[in-house]
Write a structure and sequence with these properties.
The chain has about 475 residues and is an alpha+beta fold. Helix content is about 50%, strand content about 10%. The protein binds protoporphyrin IX containing FE.
Length: about 475
């Protein structure tokens, strides 16, 4: 096991604090209301919340226990870090907990009512119509796009001096994951449009992250600078999607990519309307690009600082991929590489905040929750809970050989892809992309930290990004 990974976000957290007694019943025997900071305390902390939201969530949990009530009257807002309670919320039917929250409303300014933001019957119909685009054959095709993306990186490695050169692997991976999602969705004929589309999406997301961080934002129609930036970015998005759909309509022939499947009728003759297709395309760019790139950027940093892990994953990749070309079957035969990817997502889950709105009164971990409440859960807190994970801040991929991450006990404490009916539709896509890209990189290059480098600080935006990127010394292996 390598040295302890400590970042300022988690330092000081201890099992003894988490395991303190937090009374769960009022003297009348009814569920107690949850403890939490006062309005004044929260006002005093505003600067700290903005500067480091992850640390704030950790502090609140350590101070007040597994259910924290924030002094926000409308909606009453609760932070839920108890794994069973958080899973109960996520696993409940959309009739009990909906996605009608500030975060998803802000996101829907970009994605519209797409699969990520829709609710109830609208969501159910969309999921049924979109699911075929993620069938096994479509996910198999991702392998070819990973191989293409690795080939396109070859000139970058060739241009490095023989003793290695500094490359920001975060930037490289952002580009590669965009290429892969773009090619899987639109086919290679439309990569230029995909590039425009994703740039506009990322610009719009900046505005939306700023909106979602404060309880009250100016209405979207007000001509504030943020709203104007958002409107311009969304107009660009719409233009790029329009061009893609027009191109597909003009070509009249199926390309065999995910877009074809999105455009198809289902067996009941139902079909997504043009606006719904636009919303799904933007949703896939938003949900499927930066998430995988962020997870991989952390993998690169963690394996640069744990050379033993990097050596072991390279040995696994060499043994398998030295003997046969990369294929869908490779995934099952790279268990250590997959464990490295999982362990990075345990420490830095890209989707670090998952919110829901309670539609009826409920009780979570012994605390009463009123209908209308905003529930904030975070895999970041559950994944580092010292009561569950031994040495939770250590990077130790081996632990995934002991925890079944798909079912059984471990699943409750590891959910980078969410849980329940709204679980990520792109989970298999992400594993194929993430694990195979990592194995392919390990075959081609080695990476290590430059002298005088500092651990990048986690910056929780839409995903947890490594602030300042991941500049590492990269050397090609030939
Ligand atoms: C490491 C990569 C990824 C992570 C960590 C991740 C995480 C998540 C999480 C946590 C959710 C559930 C959100 C909630 O319950 O509120 C989700 C939903 C979703 N993800 Fe992913 N995701 C990843 C990759 C992808 C990819 C590659 C795609 C598509 C190409 C994708 C598309 C979606 C969509 C469409 C939903 C909404 C599903 C629904 O509600 O029916 N994701 N993702």
């Amino acid at each position: 096991m390598g040295p302890t990974v400590v970042d300022e976000t988690t330092s000081g957290r201890s099992a003894s604090i988490r395991q303190r007694d937090f009374p769960q019943q009022s003297f009348l025997g009814t569920p107690a209301t949850a403890p939490g900071p006062t309005g004044l305390g929260m006002l005093r902390d505003l600067g700290r919340i903005r500067a480091n939201p992850l640390q704030y969530l950790v502090n609140m949990t350590d101070t007040y226990g597994p259910i924290v009530q924030f002094p926000i009257p409308r909606p009453p807002t609760y932070l839920v870090s108890d794994a069973a309670a958080a899973r109960h919320v996520l696993m409940s039917s959309p009739r009990a907990y909906s996605k009608n929250t500030i975060q998803y409303s802000a996101l829907s300014l970009i994605t519209g009512t797409g699969l990520l933001t829709s609710d109830a019957d609208v969501w159910r119909r969309q999921r049924r119509l979109v699911q075929p685009a993620f069938h096994t054959g479509a996910v198999n095709a991702v392998v070819g796009h990973v191989v293409d993306a690795l080939d396109r990186l070859q000139p970058v490695w060739q241009s490095l001096p023989t003793d290695g050169g500094i490359v920001d692997l975060d930037e490289v991976l952002m580009r590669s994951t965009l290429e892969i999602v773009g090619a899987s969705l639109f086919g290679t004929d439309l990569t230029a449009a995909a590039d425009r589309l994703s740039r506009a999406t990322l610009r719009a997301l900046d505005v939306v992250v700023a909106r979602a961080r404060v309880p009250i934002s100016p209405p979207a129609w007000m001509p504030t600078p943020g709203n104007r930036r958002l409107r311009t970015a969304v107009a660009e998005l719409d233009e790029a999607v329009g061009a893609i759909l027009q191109g597909r309509a003009d070509s009249k022939s199926a390309q065999g990519d995910m877009l074809d499947l999105l455009l198809a009728e289902d067996d009941q003759g139902d079909q997504l309307a043009p606006l719904e297709i636009r919303n799904q395309i933007v949703t896939f760019i938003v949900a499927g690009h930066e998430t995988v790139a962020s997870a991989l950027a952390w993998v690169m940093w963690l394996t640069a600082t744990h050379q033993d892990v990097q050596d072991r994953l390279r040995a696994e990749a060499d043994e398998l991929l030295g003997a046969e070309p990369m294929s869908m079957e490779s995934l099952a035969r790279l268990p250590y590489t997959r464990a490295v990817f999982d362990e990075a997502m345990r420490l830095y889950p890209p989707a670090w905040l998952i919110t829901r709105r309670a539609l009826a009164d409920d009780v979570l971990a012994g605390r009463s929750i009123p209908a209308g409440a905003l529930i904030v859960t975070s895999p970041y807190l559950v994944h580092r809970d010292p009561a569950v994970w031994s040495q939770p801040n250590e990077f130790c991929p081996e632990r995934f050989f002991n925890v079944d991450t798909r079912a059984g006990a471990g699943a409750q404490h590891f959910w980078p892809f969410g849980a329940g009916p709204r679980m990520c539709i792109g989970r298999e896509f992400a594993y194929v992309e993430g694990v195979l890209l990592l194995a392919g990189l390990a075959r081609r290059v080695t990476w290590t930290t430059p002298t005088r480098s500092h651990a990048p600080q986690p910056e929780p935006l839409v995903t947890i990004r490594p602030r300042g990127g991941v500049p590492l010394v990269v050397s090609r292996r030939d």
